[in-house]
UniProtKB/TrEMBL annotation:
Keywords: Signal. This is Chitin deacetylase 5. The keyword Signal applies. Residues 51-181 form the NodB homology domain.
Length: 323
């Protein structure tokens, strides 16, 4: 069924036709594991206290001989409370990437995902991107990544847009065509307490759209992992940890204050509906701010001693959401 839908979408895109708008979600028709309505309810109807709290660590951009040292220092040998290895997700673009090191990360159990081939700095390009543009940036990158990093093609399942700039339906159409699983580019500032759980685009999303254009079409089986924003000390929202700016954040030399800042945002999830908590960051932010890196290491040490908190890759989170 999904292949047939993808074929029809490809035909529509080729003919320049607009896809029909998605309808309001029908909870009776939209059921796991193939479909999930957007919202804050926990998958499977679990109580919050019975739900694992997932912590999602992601790094964006190229992997190279410089930042690999940070990744090794932070992650090598680290385990969750159940003694399973932790997992991070790397959203990687092509330029300046060392594919031997990408292969190292994959073989250590981390997830490799896509961040485009070109990572063009012209944000208008991404905002106005066509389906064909997105095929060249992501469908081609998936082939490229599998080949040069020696990773099985079907193990590459996720996408994050450069600058978190949404493209409307285009990226999701391409993801459906090539049978990719999820996108994690879409911030929310309206659904942070409680936070949104992952959902599919079979039906219209209730998620707010801070960086338009957001998808409006029905694209069955394609998942959104909402980027639940942090809240800084002045009450403003930031989609990534390194997008929280002074003076509304602690001094970047103050390890204790940054540990408390991370913990405050984590607790908004842990003591609520346990929607996945994201520590989304660029490597430079940690390597150039040693106090923040130490604070984050303390945070990882703390959650490693909690029996119901797990630092995992996005794909593990998606797998849980299917239940």
């Amino acid at each position: 069924m999904k292949l047939w839908v993808a074929f029809l979408m490809l035909v529509a895109a080729t003919l320049g036709q607009e896809l029909p708008l998605a309808d309001q979600c029908d909870a009776e028709a939209c059921r796991l594991p193939d479909c999930r309505c957007s919202g804050t309810n926990i998958p499977g109807g679990l109580r919050a206290r019975d739900t694992p709290q997932f912590v999602l660590l992601t790094f964006d951009d190229a992997v190279n001989v410089i930042n690999i040292e940070t990744y090794r220092r932070l992650l090598d040998g680290r385990r969750n409370s159940n003694q399973c290895q932790v997992g991070a997700t790397f959203f990687i673009n092509h330029e300046y990437t060392n594919y031997v090191l990408v292969n190292e990360l994959y073989n250590k159990g981390h997830e490799i995902a896509l961040h485009s081939i070109t990572h063009r700095t012209d944000q208008n390009f991404w905002r106005e991107a066509s389906v064909e543009d997105m095929r060249q940036e992501f469908a081609d990158q998936r082939i490229q990544m599998a080949h040069f990093a020696n990773i099985p093609y079907n193990q590459i399942q996720g996408v994050r847009m450069p600058f978190l700039q949404m493209t409307g339906n285009s990226t999701f159409q391409v993801m459906s065509e090539i049978d990719m699983t999820y996108d994690c580019s879409w911030p929310t500032i309206s659904h942070v307490s409680p936070g949104m759980w992952p959902y599919t685009l079979d039906y219209a999303s209730i998620q707010d759209c801070p960086i338009p254009p957001c998808p409006t079409a029905s694209i069955p089986g394609t998942w959104v992992l909402p980027m639940i924003s942090w809240i800084d000390q002045a009450g403003f929202f930031c989609s990534m940890a390194d997008a929280c700016f002074p003076p509304n954040t602690p001094d970047r030399t103050n390890e204790e204050a940054w540990f408390r800042f991370i913990l405050t945002n984590f607790e908004r999830h842990y003591f609520n509906n346990r929607a996945p908590f994201g520590f989304y960051v660029h490597e430079w932010f940690l390597s150039t701010n040693p106090a923040i890196e130490r604070a984050f290491i303390r945070f990882m040490d703390m959650i490693a001693n909690l029996h119901d908190v797990f630092l995992v890759s996005f794909f593990h989170t998606f797998t849980f959401s299917l239940k």
